[in-house]
Amino acid sequence: MLNQSCACSAGRPGVWQVCWQMSLSLQPVLQGLWSHLQLNETHLLGFGVETEEQSAGWDQEETLCICICVHLHVGQGYDALSMMPKALDGQIVMEKTPRYFVTVDTPARVHAMSQDVKLIVVVRDPVTRAISDYTQIISKTPNIPSFETLAFKNRTTGQIDSLWSPLWIGLYAQHMERWLAWFPRNQIHLVSGERLISDPAGELGKVQDFLGLQRIVTDKHFYFNKTKGFPCLKKPEGSSKPHCLGKTKGRTHVSIDPEVIRKLRDFYKPHNQRFYQLAGQNFGWH
Ligand SMILES: Nc1ncnc2c1ncn2[C@@H]1O[C@H](COP(=O)(O)OS(=O)(=O)O)[C@@H](OP(=O)(O)O)[C@H]1O
């Protein structure tokens, strides 16, 4: 059941917002619209438009209500800094938006906001990343074509569709180059997604060093949870119980034709090499 009031966050400076709330009994139409909106988020972002706080639910009369907030970022004047929470002395404010790494205008905008901001990017094997991305997309929009279909412009000739969002995002070198045009390499810290799983304390140790923090988070804070198949926190702050990440993190991936995986590995090889050079480190993706 969806509450009738729409959930847009109001009054944020530099952002215009529109809020729609629809209630129709045309289930298939709305499901299609919902899929369309989710698939086109990247496209919308390209134009500086972002959807936020999307929610959908069925009311008691079995009609679908959708509430979508569209935030239109007004030119370059989007004042992100004033939207950040105030920090006390000794506190660091962090903002986490995975899409910033790949959104074309973001480096310039972040630079206009702060030239000495510290940037952290978590990167993982782009092939695994693409499959993870697709697994997430298909969990929300089950009727889309297969990964194998979407990954190719032409499957017969083997031509990869590098503009398909899950593959395009994995072209890390090209995204990194855009950031390096605005920020020196030493202001960007790269976290290995693989080591974040195999050695979370080690990887977070480097993050703490990069942020100039004392190494407080160490091995003793983690344990390997066999059921989850991932490291989890022994005792998160403010709780006495262990905590693993939620169901949408670390889920079983859709199984993909090994031949397609091989083709994708070949496709990414030169891009990965270029990324290792820019990064000054080899992430070992084969
Ligand atoms: N400790 C722990 N527990 C669970 N999952 C972990 C952990 N550490 C890293 N990972 C990996 O994080 C992946 C999910 O991150 P996301 O890409 O969804 O993050 S993001 O919020 O979009 O940035 C997720 O990807 P998937 O395995 O594809 O779900 C995990 O592989």
UniProtKB/TrEMBL annotation:
<feature type="binding site">
    <location>
        <position position="124"/>
    </location>
    <ligand>
        <name>3'-phosphoadenylyl sulfate</name>
    </ligand>
</feature>
<dbReference type="InterPro" id="IPR027417">
    <property type="entry name" value="P-loop_NTPase"/>
</dbReference>
<dbReference type="GO" id="GO:0008467">
    <property type="term" value="F:[heparan sulfate]-glucosamine 3-sulfotransferase activity"/>
</dbReference>
<dbReference type="Pfam" id="PF00685">
    <property type="entry name" value="Sulfotransfer_1"/>
</dbReference>
<feature type="domain" description="Sulfotransferase">
    <location>
        <begin position="98"/>
        <end position="271"/>
    </location>
</feature>
<dbReference type="InterPro" id="IPR000863">
    <property type="entry name" value="Sulfotransferase_dom"/>
</dbReference>
<keyword id="KW-0808">Transferase</keyword>
<protein>
    <recommendedName>
        <fullName>Sulfotransferase</fullName>
        <ecNumber>2.8.2.-</ecNumber>
    </recommendedName>
</protein>
<feature type="disulfide bond">
    <location>
        <begin position="232"/>
        <end position="244"/>
    </location>
</feature>
<comment type="similarity">
    <text>Belongs to the sulfotransferase 1 family.</text>
</comment>
<feature type="binding site">
    <location>
        <position position="132"/>
    </location>
    <ligand>
        <name>3'-phosphoadenylyl sulfate</name>
    </ligand>
</feature>
<keyword id="KW-1015">Disulfide bond</keyword>
<feature type="binding site">
    <location>
        <begin position="249"/>
        <end position="253"/>
    </location>
    <ligand>
        <name>3'-phosphoadenylyl sulfate</name>
    </ligand>
</feature>
<dbReference type="InterPro" id="IPR037359">
    <property type="entry name" value="NST/OST"/>
</dbReference>
<keyword id="KW-0325">Glycoprotein</keyword>
